[in-house]
Specification:
mainly beta; single chain; signal; 38% strand; 270 residues; seven-stranded mixed β-sheet; Transmembrane protein; disordered N terminus
Amino acid sequence: MSFLLLLFFIGSLSFSGAHFHVINVIEENELEQFLCYNDPPVVGDTLVVLYTNITHYISGNVSFCMINTTYSLNITSNSSGQATINCNKTLNDWHATITTGFSFINVYNLTLQRLVFRGCGGFLKNSTFIDTINSTNKYSFYFTQYHSAVLLFPHINILLIQNVTITSYYGFATLAINPVNATMNGLNVTKSILGTPLHLGSGILVYFIDRNICSNNDLLHTVAVKNSLIADNSADADENKILKNAQIVQGKIPILGAAGIPHFILKHNI
């Protein structure tokens, strides 16, 4: 590489970095406006900085908050410590009700770093993406009315979860659908809550439903979980209860998860 070409390459990186939009979240209700009401909207590669001197509360008025963008998004704290996102402001009764989940759809490069999610988890039935999966005949599995999750990641090209804690939560801590390159490093998932009559899983669920993934290109899809802790989580072990309440619907069977790192791969012959 010539010297002039090298200078041009470095200059291009610096120029592109200048377009990174920064949102500083310094008040306790600001994060909800961004995640749940797209205010401000994501109009380019965005860095969201959460201040650690406050708790970022989510009121629960929205069951599933959604960010749908093809840009890159990085949500992190403003220091070496973790910023806390609390979906149950009262902190009095963690068993009261399922609260709010967060969905990031089609994000090209998503990073969640130095965060704590406490008391979170929304019903997946309130996610338009999951509704599409359930209503499409080509899929052999479906999500029931009881399924819930804290973080939903459909079709993320590059996913990095770094130094994140999910605790006192409902349903799956994370649900990644068709991830291409996902890394979870320093993810601590603890204390799932039995918030529904039928508890169909917790922990980390990875779900491959794109039939093309189950071809000779399997190696193009990578999920790495490193330096992480998954403890004090639960799933319903009563098979009769599961079969009675989560019935086969139109030839589909319900997703049944465990409490660790369950994963499903939809193959051609299913």
